[in-house]
Specification:
With about 210 residues, this protein is of the alpha+beta class. It has two domains: about 10-85; about 95-205, no CATH class. The chain contains two helices and seven strands. The chain has helices at about 10-85, 195-205; strands at about 95-105, 115, 125-130, 140-160, 165-175, 180-185, 190. The strands form two sheets. A five-stranded antiparallel sheet has the order 6-5-4-1-7. It starts with 11 loop residues before the first helix and ends with a helix. About 10% of the residues are buried.
Length: about 210
């Protein structure tokens, strides 16, 4: 068996320390890179999420814009129809003047058709036709009322190369039962009950 004498490296402690320092630096840099990688991944994730939210916002804005265009077009069309039809369109609830033919006894002659007349030139009184009912004993008149209904049909008549037009409205009454719709001109339609009553008062006081 041989005995060997090994020389101790004078730089052993220094090299060991350097290796330790190198290992620590490597670990430090590796940890920094891993941390940087995680930060980059987090930023990428946030960027993707932000892009997704922006795209979703854009789609929502596009949807609202389309709805607004549709609504604007419909409102514009409705407004145009109203302007052409004097402020009315199909389906509107309106007030209109109801007119009923009425026959009653003449008040002047009390329904007799004759009046007793006295004259200086004639000794005895005589009978003459009532001047109000012309001897018919009855008087005919229209009875007007305020009625409500919905516009169910509109017919437009044009002339003068379509430069002039007139609308005829057909109303489905809601204040009384009717088998058929009521035909009305624009002048007999009103937006409120008060306007309709004022028109009737004007007819009666004319």
């Amino acid at each position: 068996m041989y005995d060997h004498d090994f020389e101790v490296d004078e730089n052993f402690d220094f090299n060991f320390s350097m290796n330790e320092l190198l290992n620590q630096e490597v670990e430090k840099r590796l940890e920094a890179k891993i941390s940087g990688y995680h930060s980059a991944m987090e930023r990428e994730k946030m960027a993707v999420q932000k892009q997704y939210e922006q795209e979703r916002t854009i789609r929502e804005l596009e949807r609202k814009l389309k709805e607004a265009e549709t609504t604007f077009f419909k409102q514009g069309a409705d407004q145009t129809k109203r302007e052409l039809m004097g402020g009315f369109k199909l389906g509107d609830k309106v007030w209109f003047i109801g007119k009923k033919y009425k026959t009653m006894h003449c008040k002047t002659c009390s329904g007799k058709g004759k009046l007793e007349v006295r004259a200086i030139a004639v000794a005895e009184p005589f009978q003459a036709n009532c001047p109000d009912c012309q001897g018919r004993a009855q008087k005919s008149n229209y009875e007007y009322s305020v009625e409500q209904g919905n516009i169910c049909e509109i017919k437009v008549h044009t002339w003068a190369k379509e430069k002039c037009f007139e609308g005829t409205f057909y109303i489905e009454p809601t204040t009384y039962k009717a088998n058929n719709s009521v035909e009305c001109k624009y002048s007999s339609l009103f937006h409120t009950e008060e306007e309709c009553q004022q028109a009737i008062n004007g007819i009666l006081n004319a």
